[in-house]
Design a protein that fits this description.
The chain is of the alpha/beta class. It is built from seven helices and ten strands. It has helices at about 50-55, 80-90, 105-110, 120-135, 150-165, 180-195, 210, and strands at about 5-20, 20-35, 40-45, 65-70, 75, 90-95, 170-175, 200-205, 215-220, 225-230. The strands form two sheets. The chain has a six-stranded mixed beta sheet with strand order 6-7-8-3-9-10, with helices on both faces. The longest helix has 16 residues, at about 180-195.
């Protein structure tokens, strides 16, 4: 059953890749719903299909078959232009590789997504950037160049960049993969706080420790959902050892 409060609804979704005569099936008959404001982790071993699923949910790729409703609307008929607009306006991305412009300030890196919208004047652009940088605790570093930051600080800048357009949903793909345990915990605490503030967060990770920050863990294996469970004891702020 599809509920109005669901941000995402997919039914019988499959994905395959074709290379000449070779067909590789990556996702098989996936069905799930994600509510507005939910913090969900997608876990599984390498090759389980979790990154492919994230790419489809975030409009970086299209499914081979099945139904995908976003905000109650079937996406199969969306044009590439409309999907690009959704990626910029409704979605924030945080990746394992920070993808910051080198030798460019924190301010300018965070403001990159605003270059693609004509809806924001310069004053509002500046306000949005400063609010996003403050939200990740880096207001004192806003003028620093990206190559002057630690790994944990770079990832926090990447989160600020994901926030600057006030997206409906944040996709985080292995956001702690390149960080030490302390920096990783700080990044997860920020994502956890965003979930508390009502943001929808979808986390892709192979680390069980990281996944336990979420409210719900979806486990993939060989392109299929093998479990979808609420987290009994969440790893919240202040509980890191």
């Amino acid at each position: 059953m599809i509920h109005s409060e669901n941000l995402i609804d997919i039914r019988s979704l499959s994905k395959e890749f074709r290379n000449e005569e070779v067909v590789t099936k990556v996702l098989h008959d996936i069905s799930l719903s994600i509510r507005l404001g939910e913090f969900v982790a997608v876990v599984g071993p390498s090759g389980s299909g979790k990154s492919t699923l994230m790419h489809i949910l975030s409009f970086l790729d299209r499914p081979t078959s099945g139904s995908y409703l976003f905000r109650g609307k079937e996406t199969s008929g969306f044009t590439d232009e409309h999907l690009a607009s959704l990626r910029n306006d409704a979605i924030g991305f945080v990746f394992q590789q920070f993808n910051l412009l080198p030798r460019t300030s924190v301010y300018d890196n965070v403001g990159l997504p605003l270059m693609y919208t004509k809806k924001v004047n310069e004053k509002e652009r500046s306000n949005r950037i400063r609010r996003a940088v403050e939200a990740v605790g880096l207001g004192h570093r806003i003028g620093n160049l990206s190559n002057q930051l630690s790994g944990g600080e770079k990832q926090r800048v990447a989160i600020a960049r994901a926030l600057v357009n006030d997206p409906a949903i944040i996709f985080a793909d292995e956001p702690t993969g390149n960080l030490d345990s302390k920096s990783g915990a700080q990044v997860m605490e920020i994502l956890d706080a965003l979930g508390d503030q009502g943001k929808t967060v979808i986390l892709v990770t192979h680390e069980q420790y990281t996944a336990e920050y979420a409210e719900r863990i979806i486990t993939l294996k060989d392109g299929r959902i093998v479990s979808d469970e609420k987290v009994k004891v969440r790893r919240r702020k202040g509980l890191q050892k």
